[in-house]
Design brief:
elongated, 383 residues, Rossmann fold, alpha+beta, 2 domains, five-stranded parallel sheet, Tumour Suppressor Smad4, 26% helix
């Protein structure tokens, strides 16, 4: 692990899918994203990170951030020279050790403007052995980073739509907490929290190839996996409740929107609980003609409460693969349709505990306060 070195993967086009058309979901401008990244970088610097490797992109996000960092560093250096020149002390103390920004470098990955950019950046960060990766995006972006850099702890910031995985925390505090761990000031025992995930396995049998061999497809979900009868991938986002057949979750809170809210508003399960949950649904949200079925209004999209018909609600135990037998369908991972399966395919889903680690921002900030980590060696608190 390269102590004091952090990766940053910021999805420049998150929160721009069809949910902006069918409901009152919001979005972020490029300037909004630049501002968020700069706040995180300032926190990283304050916590002792000296270098950040950032994913390049086509939208201009990384270029704008690089320009602002260079401008800020130049202004800080000029201020330091001016203060030293006017100081009457024989040996003026160092200025700005925790101010400004860390050295910012762009990862040498090809830019495609697709999900492959996130995948390449995650793999590169793992190869560089960065201490942690800060992720800005939706649940889907976080899923890709974990899938391709599972050995590296991550800190998440939500810039997507129905985000359940990244918690809502002020960006500069995310940067500071990440830095305190990445620089070795806070131990992994204090800083890191284990997380569950869903492991999907699809053994294709309907189209086995010339030699009769079946193809194995593996994927993951951090929050939820949904089975939908809508096999047209299209914009990927799942927002029509009458197409849903089942939803499986690692955790679900009543404070979340999206697919996991179906369970969050009926049988919540914590991130720290060993188990998960799954619910099977009827395609008929008007349950007046159905038995043993509950009708529930849920916020599948921000600003849109839609009805679902719950048939069964069960516990998902860890390390026990569950067969998914819903016929020909699409499987959505963390809210986006990713795989089409046929009735003959062998499909299983398994809840994996302690699968990857995230940085616990609150625990890091509490340790920072208890140990006065933002005070310098002279006992003076850094500005």
């Amino acid at each position: 692990m390269n102590q004091g070195v952090v990766g940053m993967i910021a999805n420049p086009v998150s929160a721009r899918d069809i949910r902006r058309v069918v409901a009152a979901s919001g979005s972020l401008t490029l300037n909004d994203r630049v501002s968020i990244v700069l706040k995180i970088l300032s926190g990283l610097k304050a916590g002792g990170v000296h270098q950040v490797w950032m994913m390049p992109d086509k939208t201009g996000l990384s270029d704008m951030v690089q320009r602002e960092v260079n401008r800020g560093q130049a202004a800080l250096a000029k201020s330091a020279i001016s203060k030293q020149a006017s100081s009457k002390q024989a040996a003026p103390k160092k200025v700005g050790e925790r101010q400004g920004f860390p050295e910012l470098k762009l990862l040498p990955t090809p830019i495609t403007g697709t999900d492959q950019d996130t995948i390449s950046a995650a793999r590169e960060c793992e190869e560089y052995k960065v201490s942690a990766i800060v992720v800005l995006g939706g649940d889907g972006t976080h899923r890709l980073v974990v899938k391709h850099a599972r050995n590296t702890p991550i800190t998440g910031y939500s810039t997507g739509t129905n985000n359940a995985f990244p918690e809502t925390i002020e960006p500069s505090l995310i940067g500071l907490a990440t830095a305190l761990y990445a620089s070795g000031q806070i131990s992994k025992e204090t800083a890191l929290s284990p997380n569950k995930l869903l492991q999907l396995r699809i053994q294709e049998k309907a189209d086995s190839g010339a030699e009769g061999k079946t193809a194995l497809i593996e994927d993951i979900a951090l929050v939820d996996a949904a089975i939908t009868s809508d096999r047209f991938v299209g914009s990927k986002a799942v927002w029509q409740p009458d197409t849903l057949r089942a939803v499986y979750v690692t955790f679900a809170s009543a404070m979340q929107v999206g697919l996991s809210s179906i369970i969050g508003l009926s049988a919540p399960v914590e991130r720290t609980d060993p188990c998960g949950r799954f619910v099977e649904l009827s395609s008929d949200a008007d349950v007046s003609s159905l038995t043993n079925t509950s009708r529930l209004m849920v916020p599948l999209i921000p600003g849109a409460f839609l009805p679902v018909a719950i048939q069964t609600l069960s516990t998902l135990n860890p390390n026990q693969p569950v067969g998914l037998r819903y016929g020909s369908a699409a499987i959505a991972l963390d809210g986006e349709r990713e795989h089409i399966v046929e009735a003959l395919d062998d499909v299983t889903l398994e809840l994996i505990p302690n699968a990857f680690f995230t940085i616990n921002v609150e625990a890091c900030m509490n340790a920072c306060a208890a140990r006065m980590l933002l005070c310098n060696q002279q006992g003076e608190c850094d500005a």
